[in-house]
Write a structure and sequence with these properties.
Elements lengths: L1 H22 L33 E4 L2 E7 L11 E10 L4 E4 L6 E4 L7 H6 L8 E6 L19 E10 L1
Antiparallel strand pairs: 1-2, 2-6, 3-4, 3-5, 3-7, 6-7
Length: 165
Amino acid sequence: MLSRLRLRSLSALAFVALTASASCGGDVTGTTVAPPASVPANETYAASLGVNLAAMTKVNDNLYTQDLTVGTGVVTVNNHSTSVFYTGWLVNGTQFQTNVGGTPLPFVLGTGAVIPGWDQGLLGMRVGGTRLLVVGSTLGYGAAGSGTIPPSVTLVFKVQLTAVQ
C-alpha cells in the first residue's frame, strides 16, 4: 500500500515537473522550444537599414523586395547560374555577413542552393541591379538559425546582381 502511494506521488511530481518545464520554454525532453516564426510586417527596423515596407513590393507575408537600382543586363530566371555581392543584417541593424569587396557568390537560382527568400526574391532581377530583400524566418534560416543568425528572425539583405549565365 505504501509503495503504491509513493509511486502515485512520484508520478504526480514528475507530471508537475514536466508541465512546468514545458510552460517555461522547454519540452518534455528538456530541449528549448524555438521562438515562433518571424513575419516582416511585425518587425521594427533600424533606421540605418532604410526599410520601408509600405514602399516595397510584397511578394508574400514573408518576403518584401525593392529595386534600389534597376540593372540593364540579363534577367534572372530559375536554373541559371547567378553571381551576387550581398550584405545581410538583423532587423536591429547588426550586420552578420557580407562579401562586398571580395568575390561574388555564385549559385544556381531556384534550386535551393540559397535560402528560399533569395530563390524567390531575386527572380526577375537584371544584371547590374541592386535589390533590398526583407525575408521572414520561414523563407530564411527558420527555427534552427545558422551560425551567428539566431532562430526565427527576419533578415534584411542588399543584393547586387553581377552575372547570369
